[in-house]
Amino acid sequence: MSRFAKGPFAVDWEDRYDFAELRRQRVARAQAALAASDADGLLVWKDENVRYLTALRAQLIAGKTTSLNGALLTSDTDPVLLGSGGEIDKAKFGMSWIAEAHAVPIMEQRELVDGFVRDILHPILAERGLTSGRLAVDQANLSFIHSMQAHFPDLELLDGDTVMQQARWIKTDTEVAVIEEACAIGDSVTQRALDGALPGRRELEIAGDAMQTLFHLGGEMAHVTTPFVASGEHMSPPHRLATDKIVRNGDLCFIDIGAQWNGYFADIGRTTVVGRPSKQQQQIYTAVYEGLMAGIAKMRPGYTNKDCADAIIDTIGGHGLEEHLFSLFIGHGIGMGANEPPYIGETLPGAPTYEFQPNMVFAVEPLVWVPNVRGGGGVRIEDMVLITDGEAHLLSRVEYEERLLV
Questions:
Q1: Partners of 384 in the β-ladder
Q2: Distance CA 264, CA 256 (A)
Q3: H helices then E strands: how many in the chain?
Q4: Per residue in 248-262, pLDDT tens?
Q5: Residues 86 and 159 in one domain
Q6: pLDDT tens digit string along 121-159?
Q7: How many whole angstroms separate alpha carbon 312 and alpha carbon 271?
Q8: Centroid of chain to Cα 79
Q9: Reported pTM
């Protein structure tokens, strides 16, 4: 497997990305995970799961995640697309791999949800012998659950999100290659923002420049709905969005926008300084950088997510800053989900320990913030990391800020 981004265009002179094969691989993985579960079928509504099974690049409406499109899968039949009206036309005329598609309403209003379950979903499930037994569902509102119980009294609903997580946990080589391409775009987006972080500019201007680069290079969206540019005191505590704040000399400035390409996300973050840093800003940045490097050194088979988190926390603690770590996990899985299991450094109840396996992909992002620092005392550095048979492979390549290293 070559570990560089060859380019996002289709060409006749070089092997690049076989998306037809990638679609087949994803369905096969989901079917294997379904066969290993207790469920007879799988119904998904989460955007990333629908795309994983059908490759539908849908129009996304703010606040309507899990309400617009769905997909049904069994262990021995192709996925059925359940799409908003306009998506059905797109599937019919441009997605030859979708053999069956049905229009669905926005899955919110109780009467429409019930009509969908009764008149559209019922015959689809009946044709596949799924009016009884077990159906795994990834996410749905309560009105859908109530309608399913009313129209399918002999059908037990199970957890389908875990089934999909198991399918997506380890990436195929083709998925890794596509993520590498997403990282090339994400690096460019990050660099454009870093280059634009100048005194007198607003955080929103910097984010706007970066988003222009994202779309110019063929990216689909940022990895967050609210592109993250936070300068100066906005990083202590972190304001995780871009505002009208004016960047000033002496400010730290953090960029976290990333990119999605062909359904896969890159999540890359860098902190720079506008002008000359203070000694305290350098000390905070150096602690975060050394912590990140210590954690990445543990990201290989034979070590666990806890080993990685402990290395990061211990290293930052050695700088006297452990109590200033941001109260959020330190790393997360990434792929077709911008933020997905498994996690690194999650401290909330139930967090599991697991061993790293080849072709896991993570975004690792320690953040330390110290209050009452002139120009801000908040630093995060975030890298995309691929687990291999040996040392971890860094997918992100944006330079670190040498002016902030002690």
A1: 363
A2: 16
A3: 11, 18
A4: 999 999 999 999 999
A5: yes
A6: 999 999 999 999 999 999 999 999 999 999 999 999 999
A7: 18
A8: 23
A9: 0.95
